[in-house]
Write a structure and sequence with these properties.
Elements lengths: L3 E4 L18 H8 L5 E4 L9 H9 L6 E5 L2 H6 L6 H11 L6 E7 L9 H9 L7 E4 L4 H4 L1 H13 L3 E2 L2 E2 L11 H9 L15 E5 L4 H7 L1 H12 L5 E5 L6 H15 L19
Helix pairs in contact: 5-7, 10-11
């Protein structure tokens, strides 16, 4: 029984010297992050496929049971809209090979314009993917959240491929007006869709966006803590990513979420102690 938790990135300026040692060489940053969390979102792969040498460095810095949720390149999901991924997909799969079992799933994040009428393209794309990896899709078209038939059709397509539906829960962010610059920015960029919780596989994935006030973030994730505890009792192995608009406290918040779920499921093993941000002193 294992719960994986993480953040949207492993290097973030507000964490330096507070939660993570500073300075740190690039080849050491993921290792320090991985002492706090046991999963991370691979958002950078959306913008460019990393070199194989870079991915080999990621593998060296993490244990085999660390989880990456790697986003497919935007050339595949947004520009070609899953049609004829060809060389872009082959290059991406070759680059990430050194991660081996650390790849929790390949993340197909689709644009808001990708609606029910595009499900045929998603089904064909998923059928053509190699079975060595698991897959997860994130949709943002409101029909999938408001039209029961559209939701069922999507679940049928994903279920046929053994893929998970990744919810991005932004309901806490939009519950009341923003109170910081980061929250105001998030209001203009994040999807405003209803919360969705059902899991399709034994490895559900949740992306949760709170507020810059940690107390409001914690209050808002209570339903997820209960849901994740239930998944663990059912024998599932969930992964939860904690976001806030500025992500300044996301690292300790992810660990706090793990602690709260562990209070509900005492058999869950605790996370290891993180690497201290500063070396120990003699006094």
């Amino acid at each position: 029984m294992r719960l994986h938790v993480g953040c949207a990135m492993w290097a973030h300026a507000p964490w330096q010297g507070r939660f993570l040692p500073h300075p740190l060489a690039p080849a050491e940053r993921l290792h320090a992050y991985a002492s706090w969390c046991n999963a991370v979102e691979g958002n950078t792969t959306f913008y460019a496929t990393p070199t194989r040498a870079t991915v080999e460095s990621w593998a060296r810095q993490t244990a085999p049971d660390f989880r990456f949720l790697l986003k497919l390149p935007k050339t595949i999901t947004h520009e070609r809209r899953l049609a004829d991924p060809g060389e872009d997909l082959r290059s991406f799969l070759a680059a990430i090979e050194p991660l081996g079992p650390r790849v929790h799933a390949l993340w197909v994040q689709l644009p808001g314009s990708f609606g029910p009428g595009d499900l045929g393209a998603l089904a064909a794309f998923l059928r053509g993917l190699p079975p060595v990896y698991r897959y997860a899709a994130e949709v943002r078209h409101r029909a999938f959240f408001e039209d029961g038939r559209a939701a069922r059709d999507l679940m049928r397509v994903l279920g046929g491929a053994g893929a998970e539906w990744v919810p991005f829960d932004t309901t806490v962010l939009f519950r009341s007006p923003p109170t910081s610059d980061a929250e105001r920015d998030a209001w203009t960029k994040k999807p405003r869709v209803p919360r969705r919780a059902p899991a399709l596989t034994d490895r559900p994935v949740v992306r949760y966006l709170g507020r810059d006030d940690p107390a409001r973030t914690v209050e808002g994730w209570r339903p997820w803590a209960e849901k994740v505890a239930g998944w663990l009792r059912e024998g599932r192995s969930p992964t939860v990513f904690v976001h806030t608009p500025d992500n300044a406290e996301a690292l300790p918040l992810a660990r706090r979420f793990h602690d709260e779920v562990r209070a509900l499921v005492p058999g869950l093993e605790p996370l290891p102690d993180p690497v201290p941000a500063e070396p120990p002193t003699l006094f």
